[in-house]
Specification:
The chain is mostly helical. The protein is built from six helices and no strands.
């Protein structure tokens, strides 16, 4: 479980970097189009904010096997799951491909299930105890 949680921590860091890249990319190509896209633009901005706040905490603290990192990762990946589920349910054009959205929903749901599992919780508690015993 420790390796799995650390891989999720790395994925959290990648999510933050990708979000920064998307923001820069949209910024150079016209962020106003996204801002004026209604509900999709609004939930995209919320997703970006959650990623930029919870993502670094999840990346660092989950890699250290801390409960705060697990909670931040749950928030991060649950928000992403909700974003793609809403997109799948209706915030997409009629001709938008469905398979990538379904893949994202399944992948993100699996991550959230792992993070919510008793084994993940226990691994973080053990990580915190080990850190305290070793003066960290």
């Amino acid at each position: 479980m420790r390796i799995t949680l650390r891989l999720i921590a790395i994925l959290s860091a990648v999510s933050v970097l990708a979000t920064v890249w998307f923001i820069v990319w949209f910024g150079t190509r016209g962020l106003s189009a996204l801002m004026n896209s209604g509900l999709l633009g609004a939930i995209t901005f919320v997703g970006w904010a959650v990623t930029l706040v919870a993502g670094p905490i999840a990346a660092v603290q989950l890699f250290r096997l801390r409960t705060s990192g697990r909670i931040a990762a749950i928030i991060l990946f649950s928000t992403a799951l909700a974003y793609y589920a809403v997109g799948l349910a209706g915030l997409r054009t009629a001709d938008a491909p469905v398979a990538p959205l379904i893949s994202a929903v399944v992948f993100l749901a699996a991550i959230v299930v792992v993070l919510l599992s008793p084994r993940a919780r226990d691994a973080c508690v053990v990580g915190e105890v080990r850190s305290k015993l070793h003066g960290g």
